[in-house]
Amino acid sequence: MTFRTSGPFPPLILDDIRGAQKMLSGVARTTGMEGSRYLSSLVGAPVHLKCENLQRTGSFKLRGAYVRIAGLSPVERAAGVVAASAGNHAQGVALASSLLGVRSTVFMPVGAPLPKVAATRDYGAEVRLHGHVVDETLAAAQEYAEETGAVFIHPFDHPDVIAGQGTVGLEILEQCPEVRTVVVGIGGGGLAAGIAVAVKALRPDVRIVGVQAAGAAAFPPSLSAGHPVALGSVQTMADGIKVGRPGDLTFPLVQELVDEVRTVSEDELSSALLLCLERAKMVVEPAGAIPVAALLSDPDAFRGPVVAVLSGGNVDPLLIQRILTHGMVAAGRYLSLRLRLTDRPGALAAMLTTLSVADANVLDIQHVRTDPRLGLTEAEVELHLETKGPEHCEEVAAALRAAGYLVRS
């Protein structure tokens, strides 16, 4: 089966992806697939997690980068390669270049997380920090390519890159031959397009569902228009899929082969990341957790068995701390409230006893006595509590009211 792409390249076919799989043997890991009992119970059918977060460099990006660079001519290799990325593509290009003995220069935004910058350097690339947004970084990399003759390695919009990412699809069919739905995150579309070509060529009955963050969802308007449409702005915590325009090559493949593109909110992303950590014991970046967010938001929409692709696990520790906190808030496991009590010795201890009996964990407490709104014998307490969920929040608030406290959220 052959699928057409626009532009000056030949059509992408299944044999291209099979060739990429042979090329990647001994280079990229055949990542594992783990069942999720919790997600399976929600969907009502088996749900499996394809763990590309455990791939070398922490994401699927190594696959496409290696295939692209390995396909360069000796003259092109001698000129070196250049890329622009905030993280995953940078590391994939850096390692692939080192393995192939090619000099690499990677442009990264000035604010790129330090662990990702350090990892890219450790994989052998020369890192240049330029620009504060990806568009500025990309322009600098392309200018460098024009000035030096280095080959620009696009993060998603090249047949070799798409073919490399498509090897994930071949592995899914090998590891879960009974699969009926594949759920995959979409940024520029390279991974979704590659998986779709591989899966639809061998199993046209399998449903492919792409997922985008609502604040960076360029594919829905592009599919409606029939051609790639650039967004005016993109806002999402999922840096790995924070792309404002579909690729010229990836768009027609997604248009033809991906059955549906869904969107999820930032709250749903946070909850999914928290679930991956707590239930699946997987450290996953927001872009990698987005298929799980789609399953959580509408579990009845997916025909099982389902394979959800965890595309990456490169997340900055400081970001994951904020995201997990946000995820716990979204899941109803944090409770913030204020209450008034009589300002007398032992009053605060009595209130804390009530919270202890209600099994709420106090994270932070502020005790105010000097507010002019308070009566002479009153004090106000602002509480931040960790709870077991929305129902427990109601139980804690009810216990405080039963003890005689005036509770305000």
TrEMBL record:
MF annotations from Gene Ontology: threonine deaminase activity
Keywords: Allosteric enzyme, Amino-acid biosynthesis, Branched-chain amino acid biosynthesis, Isoleucine biosynthesis, Lyase, Pyridoxal phosphate
Assigned EC number: 4.3.1.19
UniProt key word Cytoplasm: no
Pathways per UniProt: Amino-acid degradation; L-threonine degradation via propanoate pathway; propanoate from L-threonine: step 1/4; Amino-acid biosynthesis; L-isoleucine biosynthesis; 2-oxobutanoate from L-threonine: step 1/1
UniProt xrefs under InterPro entries: ACT-like_dom_sf, ACT_dom, ACT_ThrD-II-like, Ser/Thr_Dehydratase, Ser/Thr_deHydtase_PyrdxlP-BS, Thr_deHydtase_catblc, TrpB-like_PALP, TrpB-like_PALP_sf
Cofactor: pyridoxal 5'-phosphate
Domain ACT: 336-409
A UniProt-annotated Pfam family: PALP
Top-level taxon of the source organism: Bacteria
SUPFAM superfamilies: ACT-like (SSF55021), Tryptophan synthase beta subunit-like PLP-dependent enzymes (SSF53686)
Similarity remark: Belongs to the serine/threonine dehydratase family.
Subunit note: In the native structure, TdcB is in a dimeric form, whereas in the TdcB-AMP complex, it exists in a tetrameric form (dimer of dimers).
Protein name: L-threonine dehydratase catabolic TdcB
Source organism per UniProt: Streptomyces glycanivorans
Gene: ilvA
